């Protein structure tokens, strides 16, 4: 089992965990932490891309911990969807790591920025790779505690207040997740996702299973920031330093979306019951409330925070329609959105640095003083609004096209209208920060550090690549969807010998393994 | 037995939810703790309480006895307790810090994050806490 290709599944988690430990040991020397951190992020990027290449060639790869065969041990599974998420978070973490060199102050580093950052990456990658539903809960908690730490590395009043609101809602969400897992285990007697994918289709939907499915939806909804469970997000994201906010904006909500896609394609069916209708209404309301929330804001970071919510709606739209075309569109959407949204937050940092404020009413004149920054802003901004030929156009085209094919006109109409309103928000930033005359003209324009420009340009290049050469990415999204819609490959990778379906009574203890991954 | 157990869980979760709705930050944490405990009891119940035969394979035998207790919920519960403890400690520290720096435990009066970059600037906006 322990050949090179299965070991590839472990590196995206092992590298950040080891780095978190190492940077914690180097606590007294921020300079050493910075170097170790950046080297590790480069290594993580290589490992992530290597895993994606391997999955593209070999198909689904699974690894069993402690040589306990599934379903007794914990499985790590890399299917095309998780591999894509790992690759894109690797790119994002690397970009944010460079940006942090210019943005993160030494007092943040002394408060533990580096160990928390790498701990968060371990949690995110673990959540993408795990093939065990209880283990997914554990990775959610790893993410939660490191996120809370990162929110308060800057110990201002606003940060403490934001973190408290973030903690209250998200702790509640993970408890819902735990209750859902308990109900699911009570009904099926297994926690392995591939095993659940075999058992659940043969079972009738009992009240316990229905409750479990709805609790999963609520728990992942809180994590993803969907209507009406998103209030923690605009209450906290704008208080964090920009590099940290960009990381949150790119990754955290998308882990919730990823988990919802995993659970509601692999384990529960979207068909039947009212699940589809609930998700469709939630998706529409999420798009609308997010975009209107952004419209009244004047602070760049707060505008962008509300836009995270509105964009989550598009991804849920794919899940609500649930045809293979729609799911492929949503997968493409997630990949495009992680890069674009994080890039916009990094640009908000650059705007704040150049203009000296992130209040749009006070900013201005950046087109004249920083023309290249204006160009770099246009790429993700127009992509977010969905203008061709950028990545956002294809993403929106795919999900809206899917909803038209299923004749869900109202959802398509909402999506198009929200796209237009997104353009309004982006042009507001453009007009106010770049175009209009500044309130006071500086004698010497403030230069933006190289550490800011490099990651922004890097992520902009990724957006352009996805937009101009969309074909291979759409093709990849289709491959990922094929595995999601028909989990035969996923199950076969976890159960190479095709073990018989067990009954609830024959449970074997796995204490050693469960304890080891705490 | 199962019914009593289920009712106890319902009581825990109900009290926890009620406490979470409180505006007092410390009551919120107590509510969270009760909710976590409710979830933990639920995991125990879903592993079927009843038999007390230890899940140990006797010498010479190949498999577990048929009436052996299910050990998996204990592993899950241990993990959940450890995680719950860590998060509760963090939450308590956070509330303590909030009390020190914001001077209140009433969440209605905690508006500092909302004031930061608010669209409608009130006099309090001049207090800059970000950098």
TrEMBL record, chain A:
GO molecular function, one term: NADH dehydrogenase (ubiquinone) activity
Domain NADH:quinone oxidoreductase/Mrp antiporter transmembrane stretches: 132-417
InterPro entries (alphabetical): CPA3_Na-H_Antiporter_D, NADH_UbQ_OxRdtase, ND/Mrp_TM
Top-level division of the source organism's lineage: Bacteria
UniProt keyword list: Cell membrane, Membrane, Transmembrane, Transmembrane helix
GO biological process terms on file: ATP synthesis coupled electron transport
Location(s), subcellular: Cell membrane; Membrane
Membrane-spanning segments: 6-27, 39-61, 81-101, 113-130, 136-154, 166-188, 208-233, 240-261, 281-300, 312-335, 372-395, 407-430, 450-470
One annotated Gene Ontology cellular component of this protein: plasma membrane
Membrane topology label: Multi-pass membrane protein
Main subcellular localisation: membrane
Family affiliation: Belongs to the CPA3 antiporters (TC 2.A.63) subunit D family.
Protein's recorded name: NADH dehydrogenase
Organism: Salinarimonas ramus
UniProtKB/TrEMBL annotation, chain B:
Superkingdom of origin organism: Bacteria
Principal location: membrane
Mode of membrane association: Multi-pass membrane protein
Residues annotated as transmembrane: 6-22, 29-51, 71-96
InterPro entries for this protein: CPA3_antiporter_subunitC, NUOK/Mnh_C1-like
Keyword annotations from UniProtKB, A to Z: Cell membrane, Membrane, Transmembrane, Transmembrane helix
One Pfam family this sequence matches: Oxidored_q2
Localization (cell): Cell membrane
A cellular component term, taken from the record's GO annotations: plasma membrane
Family designation: Belongs to the CPA3 antiporters (TC 2.A.63) subunit C family.
Name recorded for this polypeptide: Cation:proton antiporter
UniProt source species: Salinarimonas ramus
